[in-house]
Amino acid sequence: MSTEEEPVFHVRSPVGSAFNAASLGAAVGLVVSAVQNSLQKHHSGAMGVFSRTGRTIAMFSLVGGAFAYADAFTANSRGKDDGWNGAAGGCAAGLVIGSAARSIPMIGGSCVGLGGLLGTFQAAGNTMLNEKLLKPKPVERLDKENPLLGSTQERRARFFKQSQTEQE
Predict the structure, then answer these.
(1) Which pLDDT score, from 0 to 100, does residue 38 have?
(2) Separation between Cα atoms, residue 119 and residue 67, nearest integer Å
(3) Dist CA 118 CA 126 (whole Å)
(4) What does the alpha-carbon distance between residue 93 and residue 117 come to, in Å, rounded to a whole number?
(5) R_g of the chain computed on alpha carbons
């Protein structure tokens, strides 16, 4: 019997999640498109954000929406919040990216790559920080004067076997 309790699953709205993520993606895409527009030489002016690099806004919006919808849909179908939901969402986002590139290998590679990356990230707890404040194991030393760790000292002693006369 494990000491950890299973977290309670809360049903999410796939359409609501997709809309929120697509809106956020569109906002980020607008900023990226504005930066792209400012770095290019053209005669479109400020409207170049939409006319020349507006595809970036659509791409960010579609990728965010596809990820959020697939993530919420998979979670609701399975009744669990775990890494498989992130993997399904990452695969959906990869399908959108690969479709924009118009390449079947890119579709498959993006699906597998983003699915694996986002699934692993979500399985690890959605963070790259040590939120549980996990502490490393204390350093053990057999010989206080030796700078090597105890496990390293033991491994070294087993490898370099000493005769009885050398030990005394």
Answers:
(1) 85
(2) 11
(3) 9
(4) 12
(5) 26
* Mean pLDDT, residues 82-109 taken together: 90
Given this model, what pLDDT does residue 1 score? 45
Q: Could you tell me the two tokens for 53?
A: 């690099």
Amino acid identity of residue 1, one-letter, is M
Separation between Cα atoms, residue 115 and residue 109, nearest integer Å: 10
Eight-state DSSP code of residue 131: T
Q: With the C-alpha atoms ordered 8, 5, 86, 24, is the resulting torsion angle positive or negative?
A: positive
For the chain, what are the domain ranges?
Answer: 14-123, 139-168
Q: Are 35 and 56 in contact (CB under 8 A)?
A: no
Task: Let me know how many helices (H) and strands (E) the chain has, helices first.
Answer: 7, 0
| pTM exceeding the 0.70 threshold for the entire prediction | no
∠ CA 110-111-115 to the nearest 5 degrees?
110
Between residues 88 and 152, which one has the greater pLDDT?
88
Residue keyed to tokens 């977290």: 7
Distance, in Å, from the CA atom of 11 to the CA atom of 74, rounded to the nearest integer, reads: 11
